[in-house]
Specification:
It contains four helices and six strands. With 161 residues, it is an alpha+beta fold. It is globular.
Length: 161
């Protein structure tokens, strides 16, 4: 989703972020990109519902830690729909990214997340990661949810680096 508004104005280092909620859940940051032109913001998710643009006053470090936890939670939630080999490979890539973050290697963490996203997409293309969502909420789009959480984490890591 991309939101463009002339009611807000873009400035470098703006705290404005795109938050989303689905099915009554708490709002969470899904920002994957911000850009000039009044204010433009982009984000992704495996399902859709309500959106807000908010001034996020959390520190970048706290945001990154929160997003790592959200990505880990999404990966753990997908475990029952993935074979062990696929899950373990994705977990290893996520572990590498988090270890790089803890070692203050932001560039390495970003590269590891790109590898994670590519591995998720490849596994989905091979039918190993579910990638269909329906409004009936009877299927989970793990491909979309995992890559979307990784993309917004990469955005925040870019702010930290």
């Amino acid at each position: 989703v991309e939101i463009y508004t002339t009611a807000l104005h873009y400035t470098p280092n703006t705290p404005l972020r795109l938050f989303k909620s689905s099915n009554g859940a708490a709002f969470r940051d899904i920002t994957a990109e911000t850009s000039a032109g009044s204010y433009r913001v982009r984000g992704n998710g495996g399902e859709w519902s309500d959106f807000l643009i908010v001034a996020d006053t959390r520190s970048v470090d706290q945001t990154v830690d929160d997003k790592f936890a959200e990505l880990q939670s999404a990966l753990s939630a997908s475990a029952s729909d993935l074979d062990t080999t696929t899950f373990d490979a994705l977990q290893a890539r996520l572990d590498d990214a988090y270890a790089a973050w803890l070692a203050d290697d932001v560039s390495g963490a970003i590269q590891d997340l790109v590898g994670f996203e590519n591995a998720v997409r490849a596994a989905a293309d091979d039918g190993l990661v579910p990638n269909v969502w329906r409004s009936a909420r009877d299927l989970d789009n793990h491909d979309g949810m995992l890559r979307a959480r990784s993309e917004t984490l990469r955005y925040s890591l870019g702010l930290a680096g």
